[in-house]
């Protein structure tokens, strides 16, 4: 490939998708002559080389393991309203996101408006349950919906266990010692952590407010938990029970297997882009009216 005047490859790293996400790992994010570039020795998705980053037209840079970022790069990203998140491989962990947010508050303002009114908050919660249930929900009683969800998730655990031929003795989760359960329960814990990390990326990318949830209420990551739970019945359990089946056949750590499987499924099913679309459809200013 021909090199441009700055010695950078002329073809920029393209957007990962139409949401303006760029995934970088195993390299250095820096600035040269006013241009953002990523220098990598390879080993990840990119081959070794110097790459120009189209920082003026992307929403968030996802910086994975083995990477570093310079002060100049942070300054340039902040100037152009491009967010930056430090993540685990494939976004199975979310470590930090400096406040370099998109230059718009539209989604945050709409989220606050919907959250502040009990009637509209209930409608968003019902829409979230409809996604989780795969059908329209009739009740407007949040406790009834939570009860229905409890029954459905128990059935989902059993079906996933049968699909992967795993003996299932029920959900057993100790908050003080999440590694105390059997292999399937440990896998669910790790898969849930990975899904929350993916939801953190999506929430940060659109500039939504993590604390303002529509189903979850007390956590500082309430809205993140709301979004992660939209994928609980299918993606989270698929990651967890598939990893548990593999762990029971090998000596490898179940957490390591879950992370590897989560990375694969996140990419194959475009989980984070899907989350971004769902956030916009639920609380975006251009969403379909109720």
From TrEMBL:
MF terms in GO: endonuclease activity
Enzyme class: hydrolase
Domain of life: Bacteria
EC number: 3.1.-.-
Cofactor(s) it depends on: Mg(2+); Mn(2+)
Keywords tagged on the record: Antiviral defense, DNA-binding, Endonuclease, Hydrolase, Magnesium, Manganese, Metal-binding, Nuclease
Signal sequence, renumbered to the chain: none
Gene3D superfamilies: CRISPR-associated endonuclease Cas1, C-terminal domain, CRISPR-associated endonuclease Cas1, N-terminal domain
Key word Metal-binding present: yes
Keyword check for Ion transport: no
Positions that bind Mn(2+): 149, 216, 229
Protein purpose: CRISPR (clustered regularly interspaced short palindromic repeat), is an adaptive immune system that provides protection against mobile genetic elements (viruses, transposable elements and conjugative plasmids). CRISPR clusters contain spacers, sequences complementary to antecedent mobile elements, and target invading nucleic acids. CRISPR clusters are transcribed and processed into CRISPR RNA (crRNA). Acts as a dsDNA endonuclease. Involved in the integration of spacer DNA into the CRISPR cassette.
Similarity section: Belongs to the CRISPR-associated endonuclease Cas1 family.
Subunit structure: Homodimer, forms a heterotetramer with a Cas2 homodimer.
Protein name (Swiss-Prot/TrEMBL): CRISPR-associated endonuclease Cas1
Gene designation: cas1e
């Amino acid at each position: 490939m021909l090199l441009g005047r700055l010695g950078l490859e002329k073809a920029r790293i393209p957007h990962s998708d139409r949401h303006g996400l760029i995934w970088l790992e195993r390299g250095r994010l820096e600035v040269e002559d006013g241009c953002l570039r990523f220098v990598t020795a390879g080993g990840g998705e990119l081959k070794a080389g110097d790459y120009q980053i189209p920082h003026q037209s992307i929403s968030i840079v996802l910086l994975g393991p083995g990477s570093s970022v310079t002060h100049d790069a942070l300054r340039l990203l902040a100037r152009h309203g491009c967010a930056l998140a430090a993540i685990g491989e494939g976004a199975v962990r979310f470590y930090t996101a400096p406040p370099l947010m998109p230059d718009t508050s539209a989604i945050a303002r709409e989220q606050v408006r919907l959250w502040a009114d009990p009637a509209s908050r209930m409608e968003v919660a019902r829409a979230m349950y409809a996604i989780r249930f795969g059908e329209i929900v009739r009740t407007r009683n949040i406790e009834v919906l939570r009860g229905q969800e409890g029954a459905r998730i128990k059935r989902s655990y059993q079906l996933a266990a049968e699909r992967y031929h795993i003996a299932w003795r029920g959900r057993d989760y100790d908050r003080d010692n999440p590694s105390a359960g059997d292999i399937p329960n440990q896998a669910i814990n790790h898969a849930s952590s990975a899904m929350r990390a993916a939801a953190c990326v999506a929430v940060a990318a659109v500039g939504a407010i993590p604390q303002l949830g529509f189903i979850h209420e007390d956590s500082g990551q309430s809205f993140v938990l709301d979004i992660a739970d939209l994928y609980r019945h299918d993606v989270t359990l698929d990651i967890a029970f598939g990893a548990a089946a593999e762990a029971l056949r090998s000596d490898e750590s179940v957490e390591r297997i879950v992370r590897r499987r989560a990375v694969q499924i996140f990419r194959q099913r475009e989980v984070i882009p899907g989350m971004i679309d769902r956030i916009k459809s639920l609380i975006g200013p251009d969403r379909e009216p109720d």
